[in-house]
Design a protein that fits this description.
Length: 473
């Protein structure tokens, strides 16, 4: 199948339920390429009955899967990993088309990172303390049962892998509802699970809208845990609905992460801080939940930081290093932060608009300085390539500004190693990178405050989908 300009259109009319591909009972849904606004896929959504069948299949598969030996589950996940690596270019191409990331970003960020997560999960599984002793008790960690995974469009493969792979490792069974804007990578992943020999019903794929399929899963009595990544408002709704059946919820929500340059930062550290923060903030078109979207710097160095940030931003050329936003709606939302006053009365834009492709949901990479910490721009998640620079009179004030947020997901600190570690401990967030510390695919990932609850990835991701039982002897 091809579209009007002869580009390929991926057609997915079947759902993966109980180890088989079955025709979907819901309406068809077109998938748009956000870089070109062309149709790049058509999927058939799940009906209410399909969702019921998927949950029933996961329920039925749970008793056997939950007691498979660890080495069997690890062997299957190793085969999944090999398939992902073999088909990395297929995944990258699908993600380039459905999510818009330029090919290099699609491959590195979107495919290689989740592969590293699978590796880390297998390693964590092989030494996971499923049974420990405490006095006369055996403390058993047992998989929770059926996990419903509901994922966003910003990282179509990674967000699925960080939920599904640790759940399967733990011995839980899964029903996945991927984002309607980017469902294609999830179909390819389902084929990988199938080829890897995952038993029937252990993983099930039911695409469809959040309001219908997501809501059905959240209400379902036979779903034991909802693992959700997405916006904070939808997270609140899901927590409320899940409360009716007192399901466990893992919520990975929004962020407004701060990168803090300390007063004792060397010239070299300052230069690196600006470069890394701009790159992190603009990664994936600014559409990452951990985006370092606030750069907090000593007042007396702000002019230099503005110059460095503007120069770094100029390297994010739309179409090569910078991708588009996911949708016309998201572009409108981001534009609402680029009006005078959004950053407070003293805010100044230090970048100039660049030329954008004629079609697609593009925005210019933008740096706004002297932003008021209480302004809408400093408080709300933009989810686009927009960096705010804020001035602090002291390190204490910088920490106060960093923590002045309803969110608590990521953060960064730059300066003397020891001082920076002390400041890292004072930030109320789930992650902090000190002097450019790299992403660790084995480390727990999640948020404080309204950035969510629960932890994903590695050993903590496995623990997150386990109940704890104490057996006394
Ligand atoms: P979203 O609107 O919250 O949607 C996320 C997922 O939830 C989608 O699959 C969506 O389905 C589904 N959904 C929507 N309403 C639902 C409901 N009432 N019940 C059950 N499911 C429902 O988020 P998004 O717009 O896709 O993603 C952007 C947001 O996600 C940003 O705010 C970002 O910060 C956050 N995010 C957080 C993290 C993290 O790890 N903390 C990672 C990435 C993104 P449909 O859209 O298909 O209808
Ligand atoms: Mg949405």
């Amino acid at each position: 199948m091809t579209n009007a300009t002869n580009q390929p259109v991926q057609r997915e009319s079947e759902l993966y339920i109980d180890g088989r591909w079955v025709p979907g009972g819901g309406a068809d849904l077109e998938v748009e390429n956000p870089a070109t606004e062309e149709v790049t896929g058509v999927i058939t959504q799940a009906s209410t009955e399909d969702v019921a069948n998927a949950v029933a299949a996961a329920r039925k598969a749970f008793p056997a899967w939950s007691v498979t030996p660890v080495r069997e589950r690890a062997a299957i996940l190793r085969r999944v990993r090999e398939i992902l690596a073999d088909r990395a270019e297929v995944f990258a191409d699908l993600i380039n088309r459905e999510q818009g990331s330029p090919p290099r970003v699609a491959r590195g960020l979107h495919v290689d990172t989740p592969i590293a997560v699978v590796d880390a999960t297998i390693e964590a599984l092989e030494r996971f303390p499923f049974v420990t002793e405490l006095g006369n008790s055996l403390i058993r960690r047992e998989p929770v049962g059926v996990v419903a995974a509901i994922t966003p469009w910003n990282l179509p493969l990674h967000q699925v892998v960080v939920k599904v792979v640790p759940a399967l490792a733990a011995g839980a069974t899964v029903v996945l509802k991927p984002a309607g804007l980017t469902p294609l990578a999830a179909f390819e992943l389902a084929r990988a699970f199938d080829s890897a020999g995952l038993p029937a019903g252990v993983f099930n794929l039911v695409p469809g809208s959040g309001r219908v399929v997501g809501d059905l899963l959240t209400r379902h009595r036979d779903v034991d845990q909802v693992s959700f990544t997405g916006s904070t408002p939808v997270g609140r709704t899901i927590a409320g609905v899940a409360a009716q059946t007192l399901k466990r919820v893992t919520l990975e929500l929004g962020g407004k992460s701060a990168s803090v340059v300390l007063t004792d930062a060397t010239e070299e550290q300052l230069v690196r801080a600006v470069k890394v923060t701009v790159g992190n903030c603009f990664l994936n078109g600014g559409q990452t939940c951990t985006a370092l979207s606030r750069l907090i710097v000593p007042e007396d160095r702000i002019a230099q930081v503005e110059e460095l940030a503007a120069a770094a931003a100029a390297k994010y050329v739309p179409g090569s290093r910078l991708g588009p936003l996911i949708s016309a709606e998201q572009r409108k939302e981001v534009a609402s932060f680029l009006v005078p006053g959004a950053g407070g009365p003293a805010a100044v834009t230090v970048t100039s608009p660049v030329e954008l492709p004629g079609r697609g949901h593009w925005v210019s990479p933008t740096v706004i300085s002297r932003v008021d910490p209480d302004s809408r721009l400093a408080q709300e998640e933009v989810f686009g390539p927009v960096l705010s620079i804020l001035a602090a009179g002291s390190d204490d004030e910088a920490v106060m500004i960093a923590n002045n947020s309803i969110y608590g997901l990521g953060g960064a600190v730059w300066g003397d190693d020891e001082t920076a570690l002390t400041v890292a401990a004072r930030l109320r967030t789930g992650q902090v990178d000190v002097n450019g510390g790299a992403f660790n695919p084995a480390a727990p990932f999640g948020g404080y405050k309204q950035s969510g609850t629960g932890r994903e990835i590695g050993e903590h991701g496995i623990a997150d989908v386990c109940e704890i039982k104490a057996v006394q002897r």
